[in-house]
Amino acid sequence: MIRLTFSKFTKWNVLKKLIIQEIDDLIIGSIWIVAFMSFLVGGVVAIQTALNIDSPFLPGNLIGFATRQSVILEFAPTLISIIMAGKVGSFITSSIGTMRVTEQIDALEVMGINSFNYLIFPKIVSLLLYPFLITLAMFLGILGGYIASVYAGFSSSFDFIQGIQLDFKVFHVIYAYIKTTLFAFILATIPSYHGFFMKGGALEVGKASNISFVWTSIVIIVINFIVTQLLLA
Amino acid sequence: MIKVENISKSFDGIEIIKNISTVFDKGKTNLIIGQSGSGKTVFMKCLLGLLEVDYGNIFFENQKFDNEDVSKVLNLRKQMGMVFQGSALFDSMTVLENIIFPMKMFSNKSIDEMHDRAQEVIKRVDLKDADNKFPSEISGGMKKRVAIARAIVLNPKYLFCDEPNSGLDPKTAIIIDKLIQEITIEYGITTVINTHDMNSVMEIGDKIIFLVSGEKIWEGDSNQILKTKNSLVNDFVYSSEIMKRLKN
Protein backbone atom coordinates (compact mmCIF):
# COMPACT_ATOMS: atom_id res chain seq x y z
CA MET A 1 0.00 0.00 0.00
CA ILE A 2 2.76 2.44 0.96
CA ARG A 3 4.69 1.71 -2.25
CA LEU A 4 1.58 2.33 -4.38
CA THR A 5 0.77 5.49 -2.41
CA PHE A 6 4.08 6.97 -3.47
CA SER A 7 3.93 5.90 -7.11
CA LYS A 8 1.94 6.88 -10.24
CA PHE A 9 1.21 10.35 -8.98
CA THR A 10 -2.06 12.14 -9.60
CA LYS A 11 -1.85 15.42 -11.53
CA TRP A 12 -0.41 18.13 -9.29
CA ASN A 13 -3.27 20.62 -9.79
CA VAL A 14 -5.75 17.94 -8.65
CA LEU A 15 -3.51 16.74 -5.83
CA LYS A 16 -3.00 20.30 -4.56
CA LYS A 17 -6.75 20.77 -4.04
CA LEU A 18 -7.04 17.39 -2.34
CA ILE A 19 -4.21 18.27 0.07
CA ILE A 20 -5.86 21.60 0.95
CA GLN A 21 -9.16 19.79 1.51
CA GLU A 22 -7.47 17.23 3.77
CA ILE A 23 -5.70 19.97 5.75
CA ASP A 24 -9.09 21.53 6.31
CA ASP A 25 -10.71 18.23 7.34
CA LEU A 26 -7.92 16.68 9.36
CA ILE A 27 -5.96 19.59 10.84
CA ILE A 28 -8.13 22.72 10.90
CA GLY A 29 -11.17 20.62 11.80
CA SER A 30 -9.34 19.23 14.84
CA ILE A 31 -8.09 22.51 16.30
CA TRP A 32 -11.14 23.09 18.49
CA ILE A 33 -11.19 19.65 20.12
CA VAL A 34 -7.40 19.65 20.62
CA ALA A 35 -7.51 23.15 22.15
CA PHE A 36 -10.45 22.30 24.42
CA MET A 37 -8.96 19.04 25.67
CA SER A 38 -5.42 20.34 26.09
CA PHE A 39 -6.49 23.36 28.08
CA LEU A 40 -8.65 21.36 30.50
CA VAL A 41 -6.33 18.36 30.85
CA GLY A 42 -3.40 20.72 31.45
CA GLY A 43 -5.46 22.27 34.26
CA VAL A 44 -6.28 18.85 35.70
CA VAL A 45 -2.61 17.80 35.62
CA ALA A 46 -1.66 20.94 37.55
CA ILE A 47 -4.44 20.47 40.14
CA GLN A 48 -3.65 16.76 40.61
CA THR A 49 0.03 17.56 41.05
CA ALA A 50 -0.76 20.29 43.56
CA LEU A 51 -3.09 18.05 45.57
CA ASN A 52 -0.54 15.23 45.71
CA ILE A 53 2.48 17.28 46.76
CA ASP A 54 0.90 19.24 49.56
CA SER A 55 4.08 19.38 51.62
CA PRO A 56 5.99 22.44 52.89
CA PHE A 57 9.28 20.64 52.11
CA LEU A 58 8.60 20.57 48.35
CA PRO A 59 9.37 23.68 46.28
CA GLY A 60 6.44 25.75 44.99
CA ASN A 61 7.71 25.60 41.41
CA LEU A 62 7.17 21.84 41.28
CA ILE A 63 3.60 22.22 39.96
CA GLY A 64 4.78 24.20 36.93
CA PHE A 65 7.67 21.80 36.39
CA ALA A 66 5.46 18.67 36.58
CA THR A 67 2.80 20.21 34.34
CA ARG A 68 5.38 21.12 31.70
CA GLN A 69 7.01 17.71 31.77
CA SER A 70 3.70 15.82 31.63
CA VAL A 71 2.28 17.96 28.85
CA ILE A 72 5.38 18.09 26.62
CA LEU A 73 6.59 14.53 27.10
CA GLU A 74 3.36 12.55 27.13
CA PHE A 75 0.06 14.36 27.15
CA ALA A 76 0.43 16.47 24.02
CA PRO A 77 2.14 14.00 21.68
CA THR A 78 0.69 10.68 22.91
CA LEU A 79 -2.68 11.30 24.50
CA ILE A 80 -3.74 13.81 21.83
CA SER A 81 -2.65 11.28 19.17
CA ILE A 82 -4.88 8.63 20.73
CA ILE A 83 -7.75 11.12 20.73
CA MET A 84 -6.94 11.89 17.11
CA ALA A 85 -6.99 8.17 16.33
CA GLY A 86 -10.64 8.36 17.31
CA LYS A 87 -11.44 11.60 15.55
CA VAL A 88 -9.24 11.70 12.46
CA GLY A 89 -8.67 7.93 12.20
CA SER A 90 -12.35 7.05 12.20
CA PHE A 91 -13.02 9.83 9.72
CA ILE A 92 -10.36 8.47 7.35
CA THR A 93 -11.51 4.85 7.68
CA SER A 94 -15.19 5.63 7.29
CA SER A 95 -14.74 8.01 4.35
CA ILE A 96 -12.48 5.61 2.43
CA GLY A 97 -14.61 2.63 3.52
CA THR A 98 -17.77 4.30 2.24
CA MET A 99 -16.03 4.97 -1.05
CA ARG A 100 -15.13 1.27 -1.18
CA VAL A 101 -18.70 0.14 -0.41
CA THR A 102 -20.27 2.50 -2.94
CA GLU A 103 -17.76 1.43 -5.64
CA GLN A 104 -16.22 4.91 -5.84
CA ILE A 105 -12.75 3.38 -5.43
CA ASP A 106 -13.54 0.93 -8.24
CA ALA A 107 -14.63 3.92 -10.32
CA LEU A 108 -11.24 5.58 -9.73
CA GLU A 109 -9.41 2.36 -10.64
CA VAL A 110 -11.43 1.86 -13.82
CA MET A 111 -10.61 5.43 -14.85
CA GLY A 112 -6.94 4.50 -14.64
CA ILE A 113 -6.30 6.52 -11.49
CA ASN A 114 -3.94 5.18 -8.84
CA SER A 115 -6.51 5.23 -6.03
CA PHE A 116 -3.86 4.73 -3.34
CA ASN A 117 -2.04 7.88 -4.38
CA TYR A 118 -5.26 9.80 -4.98
CA LEU A 119 -6.79 8.97 -1.60
CA ILE A 120 -3.94 8.32 0.83
CA PHE A 121 -1.06 10.58 -0.28
CA PRO A 122 -2.97 13.85 0.43
CA LYS A 123 -3.78 12.55 3.92
CA ILE A 124 -0.12 11.79 4.64
CA VAL A 125 0.95 15.22 3.36
CA SER A 126 -1.73 17.07 5.30
CA LEU A 127 -0.74 15.27 8.49
CA LEU A 128 2.76 16.68 8.10
CA LEU A 129 1.11 19.69 9.73
CA TYR A 130 0.18 17.55 12.71
CA PRO A 131 3.12 18.90 14.82
CA PHE A 132 1.36 22.27 14.57
CA LEU A 133 -1.60 20.77 16.47
CA ILE A 134 0.72 19.26 19.04
CA THR A 135 2.48 22.60 19.51
CA LEU A 136 -0.91 24.12 20.16
CA ALA A 137 -1.70 21.30 22.61
CA MET A 138 1.59 21.90 24.45
CA PHE A 139 1.00 25.63 24.71
CA LEU A 140 -2.64 25.37 25.80
CA GLY A 141 -1.93 22.46 28.17
CA ILE A 142 0.65 24.51 30.04
CA LEU A 143 -1.58 27.60 29.90
CA GLY A 144 -4.46 25.54 31.34
CA GLY A 145 -2.16 24.33 34.10
CA TYR A 146 -1.06 27.89 34.84
CA ILE A 147 -4.60 29.25 35.04
CA ALA A 148 -5.85 26.32 37.15
CA SER A 149 -3.00 26.41 39.65
CA VAL A 150 -2.67 30.19 39.94
CA TYR A 151 -6.36 31.07 40.04
CA ALA A 152 -7.27 28.16 42.31
CA GLY A 153 -4.53 29.24 44.68
CA PHE A 154 -2.27 26.17 44.39
CA SER A 155 0.73 28.14 43.16
CA SER A 156 1.83 31.68 42.59
CA SER A 157 2.32 32.96 39.08
CA PHE A 158 6.03 33.45 39.77
CA ASP A 159 6.49 29.89 41.08
CA PHE A 160 4.61 28.34 38.15
CA ILE A 161 6.58 30.29 35.53
CA GLN A 162 9.81 29.47 37.33
CA GLY A 163 8.72 25.81 37.34
CA ILE A 164 8.10 25.65 33.61
CA GLN A 165 11.59 27.13 33.02
CA LEU A 166 13.30 24.83 35.52
CA ASP A 167 15.77 22.30 34.07
CA PHE A 168 14.35 22.80 30.58
CA LYS A 169 15.88 20.40 28.03
CA VAL A 170 15.45 21.18 24.34
CA PHE A 171 15.90 17.49 23.60
CA HIS A 172 12.62 16.74 25.37
CA VAL A 173 10.83 18.92 22.83
CA ILE A 174 12.75 17.26 19.97
CA TYR A 175 11.79 13.87 21.38
CA ALA A 176 8.14 14.97 21.49
CA TYR A 177 8.26 16.10 17.85
CA ILE A 178 9.97 12.89 16.72
CA LYS A 179 7.10 10.96 18.32
CA THR A 180 4.56 13.34 16.83
CA THR A 181 5.89 12.87 13.31
CA LEU A 182 5.78 9.07 13.67
CA PHE A 183 2.26 9.25 15.08
CA ALA A 184 1.16 11.48 12.18
CA PHE A 185 2.29 8.80 9.72
CA ILE A 186 0.49 6.12 11.76
CA LEU A 187 -2.66 8.27 11.92
CA ALA A 188 -2.70 8.61 8.12
CA THR A 189 -1.81 5.07 7.11
CA ILE A 190 -3.46 2.59 9.50
CA PRO A 191 -6.97 4.07 9.17
CA SER A 192 -6.49 4.35 5.38
CA TYR A 193 -5.51 0.68 5.23
CA HIS A 194 -8.60 -0.40 7.19
CA GLY A 195 -10.87 1.72 4.99
CA PHE A 196 -9.25 0.66 1.75
CA PHE A 197 -9.30 -3.07 2.31
CA MET A 198 -12.64 -3.40 4.05
CA LYS A 199 -15.32 -5.65 2.62
CA GLY A 200 -19.07 -5.59 3.07
CA GLY A 201 -21.62 -2.85 3.59
CA ALA A 202 -22.50 0.01 5.92
CA LEU A 203 -22.25 -2.11 9.06
CA GLU A 204 -18.73 -3.21 8.10
CA VAL A 205 -17.73 0.45 7.59
CA GLY A 206 -18.59 1.00 11.26
CA LYS A 207 -16.70 -2.13 12.28
CA ALA A 208 -13.69 -1.10 10.19
CA SER A 209 -13.64 2.33 11.90
CA ASN A 210 -13.75 0.63 15.26
CA ILE A 211 -10.94 -1.82 14.44
CA SER A 212 -8.92 0.98 12.89
CA PHE A 213 -9.19 3.04 16.12
CA VAL A 214 -8.10 0.07 18.24
CA TRP A 215 -5.10 -0.74 16.02
CA THR A 216 -4.04 2.87 15.59
CA SER A 217 -4.10 3.33 19.40
CA ILE A 218 -2.18 0.12 20.00
CA VAL A 219 0.49 0.99 17.43
CA ILE A 220 0.81 4.53 18.85
CA ILE A 221 1.33 3.17 22.37
CA VAL A 222 3.85 0.53 21.23
CA ILE A 223 5.79 3.08 19.13
CA ASN A 224 5.67 5.48 22.07
CA PHE A 225 7.24 2.84 24.29
CA ILE A 226 9.95 1.97 21.76
CA VAL A 227 10.83 5.61 20.96
CA THR A 228 10.92 6.52 24.65
CA GLN A 229 13.17 3.56 25.36
CA LEU A 230 15.46 4.46 22.47
CA LEU A 231 15.67 8.21 23.03
CA LEU A 232 15.23 8.82 26.74
CA ALA A 233 16.23 5.66 28.58
CA MET B 1 -13.45 -5.17 -30.04
CA ILE B 2 -12.81 -7.22 -26.92
CA LYS B 3 -11.74 -10.84 -27.26
CA VAL B 4 -11.98 -13.17 -24.28
CA GLU B 5 -10.06 -16.45 -24.42
CA ASN B 6 -10.81 -19.28 -21.97
CA ILE B 7 -10.83 -17.18 -18.81
CA SER B 8 -11.37 -18.73 -15.39
CA LYS B 9 -11.52 -17.19 -11.95
CA SER B 10 -11.75 -18.86 -8.54
CA PHE B 11 -12.26 -17.61 -5.01
CA ASP B 12 -11.15 -19.82 -2.12
CA GLY B 13 -10.94 -22.81 -4.44
CA ILE B 14 -14.46 -22.30 -5.82
CA GLU B 15 -14.52 -21.63 -9.55
CA ILE B 16 -16.77 -18.64 -10.19
CA ILE B 17 -15.91 -18.14 -13.87
CA LYS B 18 -15.37 -21.28 -15.91
CA ASN B 19 -13.43 -21.20 -19.11
CA ILE B 20 -15.38 -18.44 -20.89
CA SER B 21 -14.50 -17.42 -24.44
CA THR B 22 -16.31 -14.82 -26.51
CA VAL B 23 -15.91 -11.72 -28.64
CA PHE B 24 -17.58 -8.35 -28.01
CA ASP B 25 -17.82 -6.31 -31.20
CA LYS B 26 -17.36 -2.60 -31.72
CA GLY B 27 -20.49 -0.47 -32.10
CA LYS B 28 -22.64 -3.20 -30.57
CA THR B 29 -24.37 -3.50 -27.21
CA ASN B 30 -23.14 -6.79 -25.83
CA LEU B 31 -25.17 -8.18 -22.96
CA ILE B 32 -24.08 -10.60 -20.27
CA ILE B 33 -27.18 -12.12 -18.75
CA GLY B 34 -27.88 -14.67 -16.08
CA GLN B 35 -29.46 -15.10 -12.69
CA SER B 36 -28.09 -13.37 -9.61
CA GLY B 37 -24.94 -15.23 -8.56
CA SER B 38 -24.22 -16.53 -12.05
CA GLY B 39 -20.88 -14.72 -12.14
CA LYS B 40 -21.80 -11.72 -14.31
CA THR B 41 -20.20 -9.12 -12.03
CA VAL B 42 -17.05 -11.21 -11.50
CA PHE B 43 -16.79 -11.68 -15.27
CA MET B 44 -17.10 -7.93 -15.83
CA LYS B 45 -14.56 -7.17 -13.10
CA CYS B 46 -12.18 -9.57 -14.87
CA LEU B 47 -12.73 -7.69 -18.14
CA LEU B 48 -11.98 -4.41 -16.36
CA GLY B 49 -8.90 -5.86 -14.69
CA LEU B 50 -10.30 -5.18 -11.22
CA LEU B 51 -9.92 -8.92 -10.67
CA GLU B 52 -7.02 -10.89 -12.03
CA VAL B 53 -8.00 -13.99 -14.03
CA ASP B 54 -6.50 -17.34 -13.00
CA TYR B 55 -6.33 -18.64 -16.55
CA GLY B 56 -6.96 -17.29 -20.02
CA ASN B 57 -6.43 -14.00 -21.82
CA ILE B 58 -8.33 -10.83 -22.59
CA PHE B 59 -7.48 -8.76 -25.66
CA PHE B 60 -8.57 -5.17 -26.23
CA GLU B 61 -8.30 -4.84 -30.04
CA ASN B 62 -5.14 -6.90 -30.31
CA GLN B 63 -3.56 -5.69 -27.12
CA LYS B 64 -3.34 -8.29 -24.38
CA PHE B 65 -4.56 -7.13 -20.98
CA ASP B 66 -1.72 -7.81 -18.58
CA ASN B 67 -2.34 -6.91 -14.94
CA GLU B 68 1.39 -7.12 -14.22
CA ASP B 69 2.14 -4.16 -16.46
CA VAL B 70 0.64 -1.38 -14.31
CA SER B 71 1.33 1.53 -16.68
CA LYS B 72 -0.14 -0.40 -19.62
CA VAL B 73 -3.23 -1.21 -17.55
CA LEU B 74 -3.65 2.43 -16.47
CA ASN B 75 -3.31 3.58 -20.08
CA LEU B 76 -5.87 1.04 -21.26
CA ARG B 77 -8.26 2.07 -18.53
CA LYS B 78 -8.17 5.63 -19.79
CA GLN B 79 -9.98 4.24 -22.83
CA MET B 80 -12.68 2.64 -20.70
CA GLY B 81 -15.86 4.10 -19.30
CA MET B 82 -17.84 2.37 -16.60
CA VAL B 83 -21.37 2.79 -15.34
CA PHE B 84 -21.64 1.09 -11.95
CA GLN B 85 -24.76 -0.53 -10.54
CA GLY B 86 -24.98 2.12 -7.82
CA SER B 87 -23.67 4.82 -10.19
CA ALA B 88 -20.55 5.32 -7.98
CA LEU B 89 -20.64 9.09 -8.26
CA PHE B 90 -18.23 10.94 -6.02
CA ASP B 91 -20.28 12.19 -3.06
CA SER B 92 -18.07 15.18 -2.38
CA MET B 93 -18.44 16.55 -5.92
CA THR B 94 -21.37 18.18 -7.70
CA VAL B 95 -22.83 16.65 -10.85
CA LEU B 96 -20.76 18.97 -13.05
CA GLU B 97 -17.57 18.24 -11.08
CA ASN B 98 -18.21 14.50 -11.39
CA ILE B 99 -18.47 14.82 -15.17
CA ILE B 100 -15.44 17.10 -15.45
CA PHE B 101 -13.34 14.87 -13.17
CA PRO B 102 -11.98 12.44 -15.83
CA MET B 103 -11.02 15.41 -18.05
CA LYS B 104 -9.22 17.07 -15.14
CA MET B 105 -7.26 13.88 -14.59
CA PHE B 106 -6.38 12.98 -18.14
CA SER B 107 -6.81 15.83 -20.58
CA ASN B 108 -4.93 19.04 -21.14
CA LYS B 109 -8.07 21.00 -21.89
CA SER B 110 -8.59 24.48 -20.43
CA ILE B 111 -11.32 24.99 -17.82
CA ASP B 112 -13.60 26.52 -20.48
CA GLU B 113 -13.03 23.62 -22.87
CA MET B 114 -13.80 21.15 -20.07
CA HIS B 115 -17.01 22.99 -19.25
CA ASP B 116 -18.01 23.05 -22.92
CA ARG B 117 -17.41 19.32 -23.27
CA ALA B 118 -19.26 18.63 -20.02
CA GLN B 119 -22.26 20.63 -21.24
CA GLU B 120 -22.14 18.69 -24.51
CA VAL B 121 -22.43 15.32 -22.74
CA ILE B 122 -24.95 16.68 -20.22
CA LYS B 123 -27.11 17.67 -23.18
CA ARG B 124 -26.50 14.30 -24.81
CA VAL B 125 -27.73 12.36 -21.79
CA ASP B 126 -30.60 14.82 -21.37
CA LEU B 127 -29.72 15.91 -17.86
CA LYS B 128 -31.52 19.07 -16.87
CA ASP B 129 -30.96 21.53 -14.00
CA ALA B 130 -28.60 19.31 -12.05
CA ASP B 131 -25.16 20.84 -12.68
CA ASN B 132 -24.66 22.19 -9.19
CA LYS B 133 -26.49 19.51 -7.27
CA PHE B 134 -24.74 16.80 -5.26
CA PRO B 135 -25.42 13.11 -6.02
CA SER B 136 -27.49 12.82 -2.83
CA GLU B 137 -29.85 15.48 -4.17
CA ILE B 138 -30.79 13.81 -7.45
CA SER B 139 -32.97 10.81 -8.40
CA GLY B 140 -31.73 7.33 -9.33
CA GLY B 141 -32.44 7.92 -13.02
CA MET B 142 -30.51 11.18 -12.97
CA LYS B 143 -27.61 9.48 -11.21
CA LYS B 144 -27.45 6.94 -14.04
CA ARG B 145 -27.42 9.76 -16.59
CA VAL B 146 -24.58 11.47 -14.70
CA ALA B 147 -22.71 8.15 -14.54
CA ILE B 148 -23.16 7.68 -18.30
CA ALA B 149 -22.09 11.28 -18.97
CA ARG B 150 -18.97 10.77 -16.83
CA ALA B 151 -18.23 7.48 -18.58
CA ILE B 152 -18.38 8.95 -22.11
CA VAL B 153 -16.87 12.37 -21.49
CA LEU B 154 -13.41 11.23 -22.64
CA ASN B 155 -14.78 9.44 -25.72
CA PRO B 156 -13.90 5.95 -24.48
CA LYS B 157 -13.41 3.00 -26.79
CA TYR B 158 -15.05 0.64 -24.33
CA LEU B 159 -18.11 1.16 -22.16
CA PHE B 160 -18.99 -1.22 -19.34
CA CYS B 161 -22.31 -1.05 -17.54
CA ASP B 162 -23.13 -3.14 -14.48
CA GLU B 163 -26.92 -3.47 -14.26
CA PRO B 164 -27.45 0.07 -15.52
CA ASN B 165 -31.21 0.02 -14.99
CA SER B 166 -31.41 -1.66 -11.61
CA GLY B 167 -33.56 0.27 -9.15
CA LEU B 168 -35.22 2.26 -11.93
CA ASP B 169 -38.86 2.27 -12.94
CA PRO B 170 -39.59 0.41 -16.24
CA LYS B 171 -39.98 3.59 -18.27
CA THR B 172 -36.75 5.19 -17.05
CA ALA B 173 -34.99 1.82 -17.43
CA ILE B 174 -35.90 1.68 -21.12
CA ILE B 175 -34.81 5.30 -21.62
CA ILE B 176 -31.43 4.53 -20.03
CA ASP B 177 -31.05 1.35 -22.15
CA LYS B 178 -31.86 3.26 -25.32
CA LEU B 179 -29.47 6.04 -24.36
CA ILE B 180 -26.64 3.53 -23.93
CA GLN B 181 -27.45 1.91 -27.27
CA GLU B 182 -27.58 5.26 -29.09
CA ILE B 183 -24.27 6.34 -27.57
CA THR B 184 -22.70 2.98 -28.49
CA ILE B 185 -23.65 3.42 -32.16
CA GLU B 186 -22.95 7.17 -32.28
CA TYR B 187 -19.44 6.94 -30.78
CA GLY B 188 -18.59 3.47 -32.17
CA ILE B 189 -17.96 2.10 -28.69
CA THR B 190 -17.66 -1.55 -27.67
CA THR B 191 -20.30 -1.74 -24.96
CA VAL B 192 -20.64 -4.59 -22.48
CA ILE B 193 -23.66 -4.61 -20.18
CA ASN B 194 -24.43 -6.85 -17.23
CA THR B 195 -28.12 -7.32 -16.78
CA HIS B 196 -30.86 -9.72 -15.77
CA ASP B 197 -33.58 -7.50 -17.15
CA MET B 198 -35.45 -9.09 -20.05
CA ASN B 199 -36.64 -5.69 -21.28
CA SER B 200 -32.99 -4.73 -21.84
CA VAL B 201 -32.37 -8.05 -23.58
CA MET B 202 -35.22 -7.47 -26.00
CA GLU B 203 -34.59 -3.76 -26.54
CA ILE B 204 -30.84 -3.50 -26.99
CA GLY B 205 -29.36 -7.03 -27.11
CA ASP B 206 -27.16 -6.95 -30.23
CA LYS B 207 -25.20 -9.82 -28.76
CA ILE B 208 -26.11 -11.79 -25.67
CA ILE B 209 -24.13 -14.30 -23.66
CA PHE B 210 -25.95 -16.32 -21.04
CA LEU B 211 -24.11 -17.45 -17.89
CA VAL B 212 -25.11 -20.20 -15.49
CA SER B 213 -22.87 -20.80 -12.47
CA GLY B 214 -19.99 -19.02 -14.17
CA GLU B 215 -20.25 -21.02 -17.38
CA LYS B 216 -21.23 -19.65 -20.78
CA ILE B 217 -24.26 -21.72 -21.73
CA TRP B 218 -25.54 -19.84 -24.75
CA GLU B 219 -24.62 -17.00 -27.11
CA GLY B 220 -26.79 -15.18 -29.66
CA ASP B 221 -28.89 -12.05 -30.20
CA SER B 222 -32.29 -10.78 -29.07
CA ASN B 223 -34.14 -12.58 -31.90
CA GLN B 224 -32.37 -15.90 -31.43
CA ILE B 225 -32.93 -15.93 -27.65
CA LEU B 226 -36.70 -16.21 -28.15
CA LYS B 227 -36.34 -19.20 -30.47
CA THR B 228 -33.61 -21.15 -28.76
CA LYS B 229 -34.26 -24.73 -27.65
CA ASN B 230 -31.81 -24.43 -24.75
CA SER B 231 -33.92 -25.26 -21.68
CA LEU B 232 -31.77 -23.22 -19.27
CA VAL B 233 -32.09 -20.11 -21.44
CA ASN B 234 -35.83 -20.73 -21.79
CA ASP B 235 -36.22 -21.09 -18.03
CA PHE B 236 -34.56 -17.70 -17.62
CA VAL B 237 -36.27 -15.90 -20.50
CA TYR B 238 -39.75 -17.23 -19.77
CA SER B 239 -39.57 -17.00 -16.00
CA SER B 240 -42.07 -14.12 -15.83
CA GLU B 241 -45.81 -14.48 -16.47
CA ILE B 242 -45.70 -11.80 -19.18
CA MET B 243 -43.05 -13.65 -21.17
CA LYS B 244 -44.91 -16.93 -20.76
CA ARG B 245 -48.09 -15.35 -22.11
CA LEU B 246 -46.16 -13.81 -25.00
CA LYS B 247 -44.71 -17.20 -25.82
CA ASN B 248 -48.11 -18.82 -25.86
Helix/strand layout:
The complex is a heterodimer of chains A (233) and B (248).
Chain A: H1 2-5, H2 12-27, H3 31-52, H4 62-101, H5 104-110, H6 115-126, H7 130-151, H8 157-165, H9 170-196, H10 202-231
Helix pairs in contact in A: 2-6, 3-4, 3-7, 4-7, 4-8, 4-9, 4-10, 6-9, 7-8, 9-10
Chain B: E1 2-11, E2 14-24, E3 29-33, H1 40-48, E4 55-60, E5 63-64, H2 70-77, E6 80-83, H3 95-106, H4 111-124, H5 140-152, E7 158-162, H6 170-187, E8 190-195, H7 198-204, E9 207-212, E10 215-220, H8 224-227, H9 231-237, H10 241-247
Parallel strand pairs in B: 3-8, 3-9, 6-7, 7-8
Antiparallel strand pairs in B: 1-2, 1-4, 4-5, 9-10
Helix pairs in contact in B: 3-4, 3-5, 4-5, 5-6, 6-7
Note down, in words, how this protein is organized.
The complex is a heterodimer of chains A (233) and B (248). Chain A starts with a helix and ends with a helix. The mean pLDDT of chain A is 92. Chain A is elongated, with a radius of gyration of 21 Å. The relative contact order of chain A is 0.18. Chain A is built from ten helices and no strands. Chain A is mostly helical. In chain A, 81% of the residues lie in helices and 0% in strands. Chain B is built from ten helices and ten strands.
What attributes characterize this protein structure?
heterodimer, A: 233 residues, mainly alpha, 10 helices, 81% helix, B: 248 residues, alpha/beta, Rossmann fold, 2 domains, six-stranded mixed beta sheet, 10 strands, globular
